[in-house]
Amino acid sequence: MANIEIRHLKLIDTVAEVGSLKNAAEKLFLTQSALSHQLKEIETRLGTQIFYRVNNQLIFTTSGKELRDASKEILERLEQAENNIQEINQDSIKDYIHGYSEEETIRLNDQANSIAELLHCDSKWVEGSLILEAGCGVGAQTRIIAKNNPGSTFVSVDLSTTSLKKAEESIKENDIKNVRFSTADILNLPFKDGHFDHIFVCFVLEHLLHPEKALQELKRVLKPKGTLMVIEGDHGSAYFYPDSSSAQKVIRAQVTLQQQKGGNPNIGRQLYPMLLDSGFTDVSVSPRNVYVDDSKPELLDGFIKNTFTAMIKGAGEEALANKIISKEEMNTGINDLYNTAQGGGTFCYTFFKGVAVKG
Ligand SMILES: C[S@@+](CC[C@H](N)C(=O)[O-])C[C@H]1O[C@@H](n2cnc3c(N)ncnc32)[C@H](O)[C@@H]1O
User: Does some domain include residue 1?
Assistant: First the structure.
């Protein structure tokens, strides 16, 4: 055995696809010299030449063709196994309260857009940083932070392949070039210790049975002195005018449902102690208050209707099925939430944004 490794097969497969050293290096996020070095390594290990270099193009030799065909076959089989494993993983996210519907994709994008300035006015990292975005979903926040930090590279991961595909499409549509996507579980990340300069997490910890385990895993892949930025909501912070016991009830139903699934929709208020307990230092948490009245028509739609009420509505069927609330109570509650956006109403909600350092 010549000790050919999977990374070598990926190189060969990429060269076969794009033809030139320059394009292959770009696609693999490597410098041309690093790529040349690795190709040389493959040739040394095999004891034979696998390419002719003609006018910057790489042409496979007969041995190279053999390796190219084997690479394609092995990688395809591996991808198939990874997809199968993803399907098995899907079982572990079936309890995810918001689900992965088209409505939820729209809601996540509305949410990110309507409060982009409030949440991201200070989501800035030193140029050249390598940043992990854990639980990127459909890329709603990815789009904003990657655009605001064009000099940094983002590795955005999620458990859901369906969401990642949508995220990839959205990033492509927006012509954003500094993001790579990968399937990964935040509790078991496929990265070495201290791999990232910084980490960003938004609206994910609230869904985890053991957020403290996720924080440990994130700390592991963070460089010493690197920062973790976390944004979470807190459904206990919602109050509005006109007040309505039905609306309060329907929000409580969503809280109960999420708690039954092992999550914590009121996690925002716990960010500070959680980050400290997980061993982070220099922890600072700032409340980000969304206040909506008639003078902010974009938030009447973008936040009250399309973000908050859409979220409550989205979990409605399951709350009904689990007998947490009756259909009548739910309809009245949702109607009353919409009412706060119908003229003369107001709405308040607080997000919490924490930044902490790996000491
Ligand atoms: C409410 S969405 C937030 C998505 C995105 N951060 C945003 O703010 O638009 C939560 C995301 O966390 C992902 N998620 C939940 N558990 C996860 C885990 N263990 N590992 C990785 N992602 C996870 C879900 O698949 C979902 O896409």
Answer: no
Answer for the pair 148, 142: CB distance below 8 angstroms, yes or no. no
Closest to 129 in 3D by CA, of 188, 178, 94: 178
Under 8 Å between Cβ of 107 and 311: yes
Cα-to-centroid distance, 307 and ligand 1 (Å): 16
Of all protein residues, the one whose alpha carbon is nearest to atom 13 of ligand 1 is 135
Q: Are residues 269 and 304 in the same domain?
A: yes
> What digits encode the pLDDT tens for the residues 225-280?
999 999 999 999 999 999 999 999 999 999 999 999 999 999 999 999 999 999 99
Q: Which residues line ligand 1 (CB under 6 A)?
A: 93, 96, 98, 108, 112, 135-137, 140-141, 158-160, 163, 185-187, 202-204, 207
Among the listed residues 101, 169, 145, the one whose alpha carbon sits nearest the alpha carbon of residue 313: 101
CATH code, domain carrying 83: 1.10.10.10
pTM metric for this prediction: 0.78
